Amino acid sequence: MIVPTQTEFHNAMQALPLVSVDWVVVDVDGRVLTGWRENAPARHCWFTPGGRIRKGEPLQAALARVAAVELGVDDATAQAWAGRARLMGVWDHFYPDSAFCANTPTHYVNLPHCLVLDAAESVVLKLALPGKLQAVDGPQAAYLAQHGAWRWLSPAEDAAHEQPAHAYVQPYLRWVAELIQRSVR
């Protein structure tokens, strides 16, 4: 797997779309996990956890890595979840800025994956998330600083909230609501 330098990454962003994964994690109450984004793109918005796929990194490995880093779960849990997650589709996300430059627009080809947690998994994740907000040193510090807070929300709660989720999260919420309706029938 190749991890580019900041300059290489910036040059690539100027010329090419990036491929990313989002985790659309659903708890036992049908609510979706969102984090308050502290960095660009989508700064100061509620968004699902996610990250870029690295060159040479298989999709399943990227899903597991992002789950471990962004959700704070151990590697075995992250790998198990990556194996169970369901691809929701493919979406384009266009932003006027990027993680490294306010003047460089970003285009992501996003592959969101839905994971419906059981009761025990919901507890594990809810215990892992508060620790993500503590100060951390080392290479994971930048990832952990991405989300200043977490919240679980349903589509109805989001529509009534004074700070609704980012527009790119809205289709995910509708997708989950339809999934829940189908499973109730």
Automatic annotation (TrEMBL):
Keywords: Hydrolase, Magnesium. Its cofactor is Mg(2+). InterPro entries: NUDIX_hydrolase-like_dom_sf, NUDIX_hydrolase_dom. Pfam families: NUDIX. It comes from Azonexus hydrophilus. The lineage of its organism: Bacteria, Pseudomonadati, Pseudomonadota, Betaproteobacteria, Rhodocyclales. This is NUDIX domain-containing protein. Gene3D superfamilies: Nucleoside Triphosphate Pyrophosphohydrolase (3.90.79.10). It comes from the Bacteria. Residues 15-178 form the Nudix hydrolase domain.
